[in-house]
Fold this sequence. Notes:
single chain, six-stranded mixed beta sheet, binds beta-D-glucopyranose, 17% strand, 17 helices, 47% helix
Amino acid sequence: MRKAAVGATVICAAAVCAAAAVVVRQRMKSSSKWARAMAILKELDEKCETPLGKLRQVADAMTVEMHAGLASEGGSKLKMLISYVDNLPTGDEHGLFYALDLGGTNFRVLRVKLGGKEKGVVQQEFDEVSIPPELMVGTSEELFDYIAAALAKFVATEGEGLHPEPNRQRELGFTFSFPVKQTSIASGTLIRWTKGFSIEDTVGEDVVAELTKAMKRKGVDMRVTALVNDTVGTLAGGRYTKGNVIAAVILGTGTNAAYVERASAIPKWHGPLPRSGEMVINMEWGNFRSSHLPLTEYDIALDEESLNPGEQIYEKMISGMYLGEMVRRVLCKMAEEASFFGDTVPPKLKTPFILRTPDMSAMHHDTSPDLKVVASKLKDVLGIPNTSLKVRKVIVDICDIIASRGACLSAAGILGIIKKLGKDALKQGENQKSVIALDGGLFEHYAKFRECMEDSLKELLGDEIADTIVVEHSNDGSGIGAALLAASHSQYLEEEES
Length: 498
Ligand code: BGC
């Protein structure tokens, strides 16, 4: 009896020991997995660092590339495209004009009534239409027909007091937010698509001709009198309402900047010098690249697997199309190498672009003590339920690292422009503040990104210079800006002036 009891006790003790050993092993395993996850986080943090010294190098490289891109065709990764906008709005513009704003997954059509200096924008109406994903990679005809059909519908809703003057054709400012080599203010050929569009038969074609053909097919009698990039539209819209705007920056699905250059400082400009002596340049800074950019393995993989490998490297580190995707890639690595979400990698996490930047932003801004927004995004977007608070905190850290890097790099780009314009030093007798007009969803809706960009720019400029530069949100400047430029290039202008 005793023997049996002892035997049972020994067996029991052995089982307890074995169980304890399993627990210990599991604990050790999970603590080493956690350590691996922390190592991945630390490495990300280090590789994404943007100390002031590095940002200054990025800004200097931007200035150098600006010079090179202005000097000759193909002289730089920065296209430095001539916009043919040599006169920014004065306020005198008047009449009814249309604008079409195409640049992302939605496009907008606008109708604007301008009332000259006295009245400004008297009335405006708009409609927003989303582009079905298949049209972003289809044919030119399909895309432009879809847009022209929406325009036709919008024109049909012209109400009281919002008709063009009798015997006048409707005129349109076309904001087309992709790299275009302009051949005049109202024509230009597409260099390449960005931001997830890939419609090969449009590359090298005149986009105004494509739109005009589609408008004919859909029975819209309208003439494009200005073709502008969204940055150029934002600059024009900004000048109209905010005075001394020297540059405009878009931080949205994509990113880019335009600024006002002395025409005599553009060696590759072969036309007659404009009377204003100025020319707006569309930098296409999204394609900027420099050895000073803090690239990580995630950037390299994202680029290689993108629709436009090797292109838009700066844009891929900064803009709204890519930030969420970067976070997903980091989480994927943690899931694969550190079982961050359990023994298997959650299947949804493997889907490219499933984590959108607005969801990333919601997680990053979560102030609840138990990070419940993070928990619900993980569950709803990535199909990952029951995460611990510790895991959620790491996710907020990753969002912070990726967003801060993008924000600081965009501040460095702005400093590059300020330097090119010689506004990085105080000039005697110059007391007018220079305005940089900013727009785009990232700037508008991702508060932490915006704050970080603004703080970083201030720090880079130093207090004294920072006081002379104002960053202003130019809400929807690009649509109104295109309408204003359509007005200042109206085919009826000479008639009116004579
Ligand atoms: C395009 C630019 C555009 C920017 C912001 C980039 O992808 O190349 O033309 O201005 O996005 O919309």
